[in-house]
Amino acid sequence: MAIRDVRTPDTEDVERAWEVVRGVLPATPLVRPAAGGPALKLETMQPTGSFKVRGALAALAEAGDDQPVVTASAGNHGLGVAFAATRLGRRATVVVPANASPAKVAALRGFDIELVQTGTTYAEAEAHALELGARGARFVSPYNDPGVIAGQGTLGLELGEQTSGPLTVVCALGGGGLASGIGLWAATRTDVRVIGVESAAAPSMAAAVAAGHQVPIEVGPTLADGIAANLEPGSVTIDLVAKHVDELLTVTESELHTALRYLAGTHGLVSEGAGAVALAAVLAGKVESREQVVAVVSGRNVALPVLAEVLASSHS
Length: 316
Prior knowledge:
alpha/beta, Rossmann fold, 15% strand, lyase, 316 residues, TrpB-like_PALP_sf, 2 domains, single chain
């Protein structure tokens, strides 16, 4: 893939995104800790089940009424773009592989969008979406997009209204949109630390930050499949994470199992693997902080057989 020219967002972008997002989405709950437990920011309660809808709303609002948008995703980002397009009255095309999950395709068909199925891999679907973008539509990346990053940063502004005093925010780290956005918000505060968490099977961002640029890595199997991929070459999130995220951590599959069982057993909550990596790091004792710690539970869209297997297992 050729390196795209993507503008790097700033804190003013996050403020503008906030005006859009809070006009559409109610604040998601912040569950205060029981004895000794971490506070949880429940992005699982978003209408699409994931924080991704924040960035989609901001990006589509930024595109304006007349410019169509296009993206490639059969997951949380695609659902976010579909929701945002329907809510804001924008024209949107979501491109997915021909063999995409029937359940996800059915969910996307529930929105007022154009759904295109082409190719047999995500890369082929993305290539088609980029081609459509070259014809005049705005291509909305799941993370390498200024509007998307700014929209994810509204989670920080929301936390600022729900908390007081020093704060450590722990969040999932895949392409870096969420961590970058929260980091931009934290840059306006002197009492906020941001920690990003990857799966040990796919530490793409840690490798990129260490090298100063995208580094292809081998991605292993993981429950956190939503954040397990190589980064887009030249992604602006690499520099943003390096500058604004205080610490990068990884979690193992065993630690992910523990986090998913904790959410279900202690709070009666469902999360996908990628949505629980922040909590997994906290429960494993990897987050050192004398401050208030908030773990972002970022998404709930998990296949039920996968969740059932995790809850029934004694993974170690």
